Structure prediction request, 378 residues.
Amino acid sequence: MQRPIHPLEKLLEERIAILDGAMGTTIRTYGMKESDIRADRFQHAGKDLLNNGDLFSLTQPAMIGDIHRRFLEAGADIIETNTFGATSIAQSEFFVEDPRERGGRKNPEFYQKIIEDSSLRQLAWDINETSARQCRQWADRVAEDTGRPRFVAGAIGPLTVSLSNSPDADDPGFRVVTFDQVKTAYADQVRALIAGGVDLLLVETIFDSLNAKAALVAIREVFDEQGLSTTGRQLPIMISAAVGRGGETLISAQTTEAFWTAVKHAKPLSVGLNCSLGPELMYPFLSDLSAKAEVAISCYPNAGLPNPLSPTGFDLGPEDMAGWLKNFAGEGLINIAGGCCGNTPEHIAAIARALQGMHPRELRELAQRKSGDRGVSA
Prediction:
């Protein structure tokens, strides 16, 4: 079946699309306290919650909506849901006692209880569906006001566990969680994001390619379950990995070519890089990925290195980031540009201004489809 071209794909043919910035960084500028994130629903939680920013979608919706509005008014074409850690597995870090505190350890038996916990599953659903609806409301409102379409990306983060690595140096074969458990947690998240009305799904900040594989399998299974694959209504997928400090591989210990080979079966709308330690470290990886991948390339780096003396907690200001992204665009490397940690609405506004009128990287896949070389099956 020939997949219809999504409106975002049409946009990517015309210009570089702008992605929003860092939700966590921007939340911190509002001066929220522990009591603000708890509100009534979580007032009796036994652990500190302030670092669990996804909960603000439930307890401080006006603030989250204001952040979405600011990023949209800064020029973002795509805004992300506030759901980076909105799975039962990630949320368990804040709501379930760590067995290691009593001499035990986290293992597949522990995580089986987590994914079967009805309260955690409901919490994950509530965060994802609510955040998606908040994004949808603001994207539609600003699109109507400006006459320019805006898109909602369901943010799917990397989790707090790894399928590829053992946490026990004495037992390299040990894994704390199984592939099916991770897939189940991701499938719950995907269902809720779709129910909330997202336009696309973004598997991002990949540090473990096997975790990402589980997310992609979960997405495919949910598409099949809901009949989206056979009807051609499946949502586009964006995939984005993080760069390691070593200089030769991604955090997943793969080269960019190996990473692309591992995920291209999902036929994503885009593949790219985000987070990491700033645009300078990202550049050689981005250049390599752009040369090898046949789909759109996204790039949304951190605003440089962490710096506690900076107002945003990171080194690079709006004009610094705009300069880097403009250089990437000038070399024909990117189709989607934005910012990760440290990037406020002011950063995104500067990036949008800098990239205005610049040509996007040539989309070979779309060019092939236009010429009738091949079709993309659902």
Remarks:
- Residues 369-378 have pLDDT under 50 and may be disordered.
